[in-house]
C-alpha cells in the first residue's frame, strides 16, 4: 500500500492529529537516513534473535527512554496558551518600563495554569491553590509574573518552603498524600491560616482556569525616571466571572475526567471564546512601607483595598493554543527574576528566595541552555545578546564568531543603563535571623475578616470542607487545629466541630464504604481459570 498519510487522512477536528506538510512524509532516522522498514526488527532468520546492527530499533528504544524531562518539583500538572496583553492606562509616572509608556501598547504573552502539589498526571479538580504564571515578551525582554490564584501564601520565609511542600506531597512510607502531615504543619505554623481559609472556601476549587483570578501575591516594585520607587501588588481579575466547583462534584469530575481544566481551556480557545483578565495594581509609596501598620512584605497578609485601591492598567486575552505541548508548555521556564528595566523587587523574604530558585530549577529540569528555547524568548521583539557560551545542547549557533569577552575592541554588545538608573533600595543594617516565633503576632485577624465576608452558605460549605480533610488527621492534631480555627472566628471552630460529627465527612472513605456492588460476579465466568 503506497498511500501516504496525507492522502488517506483529512483532519476535521482541532484535536485530530495534523497531516504532515509537503516533503514531511518520508520517514527517516535521527540522521535523516530513509527508513526502509518501520514494522519489523532485523532478525537472524525468521524466528531468530534480533541483530545489534538494527540501529533503527536501538535508536527508537534509546530515545523513547529519554522522552521525559523531570517534572516540575511543584506545579507539575498544568496547561497553557498564548495571548495578547494590552495597556489600558499608561503609567510613566510609576515606571520607565517600555511596556507601560503608552496606552494601547500590545505585547505577546504566554500563560500557564497549574495545580501545586500533584504530579504531572494529577486530577485537575482537587482542592489546592492554582498556579497563575504569565510571561510577557516585551521590547526589553521577558517580564514574568509567577503567581497563584490567591493573594497570600502559606509561609513567608524561603527557608520554610521546602518543609511546607513536603507536608503537601506524598508520605514517605504510604506514598499517599497525608492530612496528618498537612494539618500538623499548618497547626504548627499559624501564619498559614490566611491561605488555608482561602483554600477551604469555595475558591479552593475553581470551575476552570478561565474562572479564577490571579495575584502576584508578593509585593514587587516599580521605579520611574525621577528615581522614585513604589511598592505594588498585581491583580489579574477574570472577566469570565469567578465560578467554583463544590467538593463532591469536583471529586466526581476528578474520577471521570482528570484533565477537565485542560479540556476546558483548549476547547474554549478553539471555539474562539478567548478568556480575558483585567490587570490592576495596588500602589504603595515607598515611604509608607516604613510606617504602614502591617509589614508590607509579609506574604501572608493582604493590603486592604480601602488603604490601597486597585488601579486598572491593562487587560489580556488568551487566543492561541500551543502547537505542541512539550515544546511550548512543558519547556516553558517562568522565573520571578525576569524583570525588565522599570520593574523591581522588594525585601519580601520569600520573593528573594524565589529569585534564585527558578532559574536553578530550569537548569536542572530542562538544561543549561533552557533560556534559548523558542518559547522562552522572542528574538524578533527583543534579541538576546549575551556573553554566555557553549554548554549542553547549544543549538542556536552560539553567537558564531562574535566577541566572547567584554570589554573588547570589536564592537561586542555593551551595557545600556538607559536614561534613568534604578534607585537604590534601603535595606536593614544588622544581619540576623529575624522572625519566628513572634508570639504576639496576630495571625488570625485577616483570615477572620475573610471568613466573615462570606455568605452563610459558603461558611457552611467551608465547615464541611475542613471537616472532610481534618477528620483524617489524628485527634491531637485536630484538637490543636480546632483551637486555631476558634481564634479565626468562634463560629468557624464550632461549625467545623459540628461538621466533624457528620458521618459522611470522613475523608478518603475506606474501600468497603465505596464499593456498593458485589464485585465477585466475575468469578466462575467463562474466563475463570485463565
Ligand atoms: C513553580 C520554587 C513560592 C508560584 C516552582 C518551581 C520551583 C518553585 C522550583 C518549579 C519551576 C520549574 O521547574 O519550572 C519556589 C520557592 C518558593 C516558591 C523556592 C518560596 C521560597 C511560590 C509562591 C508562588 C509560587 C509564593 C505564588 C505566589 C509558582 C508557580 C509555579 C511554581 C505558579 C509554576 C510555574 C510554571 O507555570 O511553570 N516554584 N516557589 N511559588 N511556583 Fe514556586
Automatic annotation (TrEMBL):
Enzyme Commission number: 1.11.1.6
Keyword Metal-binding: yes
Domain Catalase core: 28-414
Biased composition (Polar residues): 1-7, 21-43
EC top class, as a word: oxidoreductase
Keywords: Heme, Hydrogen peroxide, Iron, Metal-binding, Oxidoreductase, Peroxidase
CDD domains xref list: catalase_clade_3 (cd08156)
Organism, as annotated: Deinococcus radiopugnans ATCC 19172
Protein name in UniProt: Catalase
UniProt family annotation: Belongs to the catalase family.
One Gene Ontology term of the molecular function aspect: catalase activity
Lineage of producing organism: Bacteria, Thermotogati, Deinococcota, Deinococci, Deinococcales
Cross-referenced PROSITE patterns: CATALASE_2 (PS00438), CATALASE_3 (PS51402)
Superkingdom of origin: Bacteria
Region (Disordered): 1-48, 516-530
